[in-house]
Design goal:
There is one protein chain. The chain is mainly alpha-helical. The protein folds into two domains: 59 residues, 3-Layer(aba) Sandwich (Glutaredoxin); 120 residues, Glutathione S-transferase Yfyf (Class Pi), Chain A, domain 2 (Up-down Bundle). It contains seven helices and two strands. The protein has a two-stranded antiparallel sheet. Helix 3 runs antiparallel to helix 4 and helix 3 packs parallel to helix 5. The radius of gyration is 17 Å and the shape is globular. The two termini are 26 Å apart.
Length: 203
């Protein structure tokens, strides 16, 4: 929404509470949900972003040609599915979600797996940006947004070994410098402060 320069009111939804009012908006009980003033109620991040692309086509965040759009969609899926299952779920769920929901102690084996898996993904980011300015090509896209969303969650824990992957770090530094990303860097989880470098643009 910020990249499209559209105002949005963000609301926190504790999905584990399964409020009836929220389930009426999205029976799956998952976020995100976008309520358009005078328009539709949308759920699922892919459906929402593609809707926004069609309604607010400038700037283009999906790709100007079929091949570019296919690559963007492929990488969005990579990070929302593969990275999420191999890294985000292993680290964020174990270290933050389980504590917030009193689901027991973190699983040390899962944490070790997440810390090991992230190196492959950082190497992949480095490989993608060897010949491209951004992940899906020479233009900033939804692929960069999806990847940065996951990396920022893990970086909030201090678990991204940026110094071991300088090319990926350079890509993320450019993401952090975008005005649209500053609000994300200002978000804090009560009782869980991020590391000092988290919001530092020159980390």
């Amino acid at each position: 929404m910020a990249e499209k320069k559209q105002e949005v009111e963000l609301r926190i939804e504790k999905v584990w509470e399964r409020r009836e009012e929220f389930l009426a908006l999205n029976p799956s009980g998952q976020v995100p949900v976008l309520e358009v003033s005078g328009g539709p109620m949308l759920s699922d991040s892919v459906a929402i972003t593609e809707y926004l692309e069609e309604v607010y086509p400038d700037p283009n965040l999906l790709g100007r040609h079929p091949e570019a759009r296919a690559e963007t969609r492929r990488l969005v899926s990579w990070f929302d599915q593969k990275f999420n299952s191999e890294v985000t779920a292993m680290l964020v769920h174990q270290k933050i979600t389980k504590r917030l929901l009193s689901l027991g102690e973190p699983d040390s084996m899962a944490i070790r797996a997440g810390n090991g898996n992230i190196h492959m993904h950082l190497e992949y980011v480095a490989w993608l940006t060897e010949d491209r300015r951004w992940l899906a090509g020479d233009e900033f896209s939804l692929a960069d947004i999806a990847a940065a969303a996951h990396f920022s969650c893990v970086d909030y824990l201090g678990d991204v070994p940026w110094d071991e992957h300088p090319r990926a770090k350079d890509w993320y530094a450019r993401i952090k410098s975008r005005p649209s990303f500053r609000g994300i860097l200002g978000d804090h989880i009560p009782g869980y402060p991020p590391p000092k470098h988290y919001a530092d643009l020159d980390f």
